[in-house]
Amino acid sequence: MTGFGKLQVHVVISALLCVAGMASLGGDSGEPLVELRWALGKLAAQSAAPSAIDKDVQLEPGTKLKFLVEPLSPSSVYLILLDSSEQIHLLYHESAKAQQASDGASPTYVPPGSQWFELDDNAGRETFFLLASAEPLVALDALLERHASADPAARQGVVEEIVQEIRRLHKEHRRFSRPVEKPVMIGGQTRSGGPPASIEQLAVEISAERFYGKSITIDH
Q1: How far apart are the first and last CA of the chain?
Q2: Which of 22, 114, 132, 164 is most buried when burial is the number of CB atoms within 10 A of its CB?
């Protein structure tokens, strides 16, 4: 299996599916809205169905993890992993331009299909960053491009810059109104531990002015 530091995956993340958005709406303040649906599901070793993670948590080895991401308005959306080896992995990225060019909204699962991340027996800390912006995040895009092309000796310095930029974005947008978060009600066997659709039942829908950021740290 391919591993991201101590976080193991059953597949190599490659090109992810494009997702579409609806037209952006303005909030009461006139700021453009960022709207998206997302979920992070965990599946314990003996569990029959996943449960939601929405804050920092400690998990047992063998726990499986899966994300759902679905932009509902044209926006720049990122899912970034800082693994226990202090390495950055861009797990998902979608631009507003790509969303506007597609034909309809649909969720993207990370990892795709019936695959799941799985925590191994080595103690560590993994931090996931979910970012969505009504405007392009030019500085973050440039840093991610530098990271992708940097040699191993220079890459760690870029990792630190990426984390600093994410923190700066959170701080910069604190003055905007608190995001509205509501559960999405959805009616409703693989050896990897459950079909992707099971994650949809855990999804929440977010509406925020200009920018939405969420970080979740998992100790194991």
Answers
A1: 19
A2: 132
